[in-house]
Amino acid sequence: MVRHFMAALQKHKMCYALILPTFFLVFLFRYYPAFSGVYHSFFEWDGALLEEWVGFSNYIEAFQDAKLWRSFLVVIVFISANIVKMIPAIIVALLIFHLKSEKHQYLYRVLFVVPMIIPQIVYMLLWKFFYEPNIGLLNQLLIGLGIVEPDLPPMWLADPEWVIPSLIFMGFPWVGVVSVLIFLAGLQSIPNSVYEAADLDGCGILKRCVTIEVPLIMSQIRLSLVLMIIATLKGFERILIMCNEFGGPNGAANVPGLYMFRMAFMEGRVGYACALGMLLFGVILVLTLLNDKYVRVEK
Amino acid sequence: MSAAPKWKNVQQELAKHAGILFVLFFAFFPLYIMLQASLKDNAQFGNNIWLPMAPYHWANWLTGWLAIKDFIANTVIVCVFGVLLTLAFSITTAYVFARYKFPGSNVLFYMLLAVMMMVNVASLVPLFTLLRDLGMLNSLISLILLSIANGQVMCVYVMKNFIEDIPKDLFDATSIDGATDLQVVRSVVIPMSGSIISTLAILRFIATWNDFVMPMLIMRDEQMYTLGVGLMSLNSGYDTQWGPLMAAYCIASIPLVIIFIFTMRLFVKGLSSGAVKG
After folding, report:
1. Cβ separation of B268 and A181 shorter than 8 Å?
2. CB of A209 within 8 Å of any CB in chain B?
């Protein structure tokens, strides 16, 4: 038995050799940190010398941490907004799909990819400049239109009331390229017979869109939805760049990822940050499992 | 009979174009602001932010270039080596999983897929301490290795599906010739999967180009910064010279634009085929 097994290993040693680089890197840079994070979530750890077993107290502290709860509320607000912000991409995909000329379809697909290849950081810094209170574009526009008092311009990202709306509005008109293209691919796979049937029934454009097309690309919509929710839950770079490591004025836009980041790298509470990371992982895992179980994407 | 419906069709087409162009206008607006502001000095910039204005200060681009050329060089090094090695490793691994069953192959493949579930931020801190303990802070090599490690899962997954769809006869023909696995990868897999490989390459290139957090954490010296960190540090200066800053933003975007122009057809096709869903 063992000999048989050894022979099989021997026979396939080329296979193991070929996959070795991949697995070496994945184990070292993905698995090891992940397990180390689980392990250290039970420690009071400053990332260096202090390393003291504290059992579950990091987790207990997290459940009693009002700032953490608030950060989850903030991220839920962002997720809800992002769901609404998916609509333009769907509409754009529908518009492009219904163009008669294939040439135009292709041209627009290319044009919509262009904003994606501008580095994200450049985009964010440009928006940061738009929101700049004194010389930023937004205030100049609003003052020019007479909507805003020139002496008392809104501070946008620096105003605890406005920081979340500003972050939500950012990136207008919110057409993520990848989602436009995914939706387009979904629309293109709708069989022609469906359309012919709809034409026979004398279906209007709006009705056709709501009753036929959107339901038929539901699996693509769901996919983007899941990807978006996970990305929003763990994302924090945008808020770190647009505001600061506290999540804006009074921490008004603090999200869980950012809170974890600050605990680890600014406050030296690395063990606690690992526990927060585990909680975040848990939430994402539950959402993924729920999605697999109840809203399975049909192939 | 046909005149009225035809006119209606034209109207409908125009309405669609108008809708798309409306959205495109706003999508491109920040780029327009960036471009025209890159040619202004601070006085012009404060005076009129909306429109291009003579005299054009082309020197801004030189200043911007000098400010970020080291960051660009670092980023290009990380991206080029990162993407090439990501593809080299992931294509061979995908090939092995697609063509061979061997002891542990299923377990190993699922272990790879399980990485998709991991939350990057959750292991950010241990990853940082790992690199610190290995003495790999402040080095471009760590960024390259991380880029390879992060790209493996998606690339192996997509490539494996793709290789499984390549007709078996092709492989059989080459193995009769006594080709080794690496030769098969080179002579069958790579020529057959050009568009998917280039799509993956571009996606990984963009992801690495945009990476911000790890470089920010591990780079200590300013000359080691990559673009993201470098642009952030320029942006946080006090008396901002907007023209050169905007020129620097433009320059930072150019390499991706060039790559895109050369690979547009493949890229749009690859993305639209829905093959890459993460």
Report:
1. yes
2. no
Q: What is the dihedral of CA B106, B107, B110, B112, to 10 degrees?
A: -110
- Chain A interface disruption, residue of B123, B134, B253, most A CBs within 10 A: B123
Cβ distance A256 to A68 under 8 Å?
yes
Q: Which of B87, B124, B184 to mutate to test the interface with A (most CBs of A within 10 A)?
A: B124
Q: Is A250 left (phi over 0), alpha (psi -120 to 50) or beta?
A: left
Quote ipTM for the complex. 0.87
pLDDT digits (tens, 9 = 90+) for A211-242: 888 888 887 888 788 888 888 998 899 999 99
pLDDT tens per residue across span B18-40 = 999 999 999 899 999 999 999 99
**Structural domain boundaries, residue A239:** 58-294
Can you name the residues that pair with A43 across neighbouring β-strands? A53
Looking at CA atoms only, how far is residue B12 from chain A in angstroms? 9
Closest CA to A232 of A251, A249, A257: A257
- Domain B64-272: CATH superfamily is MetI-like (1.10.3720.10)
CB environment A55-84: b (16+ within 10 A), e (fewer): eeebbeebeeeeebebbbebbebbbebbee
Structurally, how many domains does chain A consist of?
Answer: 1
- Which residue in the block uniquely carries the two structure tokens 């429109």? B51
**Does the CB of A210 have a partner CB in chain B at under 8 Å?**
no
